[in-house]
Amino acid sequence: NKTVYLQIKNTSDKDMSGLQAKIASAVTSKGYQVVSNPDTAGYWIQANVLKADKMDLRESQGWLSRGYEGAVTGAALGAGITAYNSSS
C-alpha cells in the first residue's frame, strides 16, 4: 500500500506555507499517493518545523546523519530544505 498521509505543522517564526505541497510533490514523485484520510494510509509523515534557517548541503547532511535518517523522513527533510532555501 503506497499511500501516505501528511501531517505537517510549522511552529517556527518563518513562513512555510508551501511546505506541505512541496513535500507532497516529492513523495508523489517517488511513487506514493498522498491521501487525506489517515485511516486509509499505509504510511504517515508527521513533521513539526521548530526552526527554519538557511544551511548548505554539508550542514543538512550532518543533521540527517545524527539520527534523522530513513527513506521517507530523508525525502521529506530534503524537500523541506530545498523548498525553504529556494523560496528565500
Automatic annotation (TrEMBL):
<keyword id="KW-0472">Membrane</keyword>
<keyword id="KW-0449">Lipoprotein</keyword>
<protein>
    <recommendedName>
        <fullName>TraT complement resistance protein</fullName>
    </recommendedName>
</protein>
<keyword id="KW-0732">Signal</keyword>
<comment type="similarity">
    <text>Belongs to the TraT lipoprotein family.</text>
</comment>
<dbReference type="Pfam" id="PF05818">
    <property type="entry name" value="TraT"/>
</dbReference>
<keyword id="KW-0564">Palmitate</keyword>
<dbReference type="InterPro" id="IPR008874">
    <property type="entry name" value="TraT_complement-R"/>
</dbReference>
<dbReference type="GO" id="GO:0009279">
    <property type="term" value="C:cell outer membrane"/>
</dbReference>
<keyword id="KW-0184">Conjugation</keyword>
<comment type="function">
    <text>Responsible for preventing unproductive conjugation between bacteria carrying like plasmids.</text>
</comment>
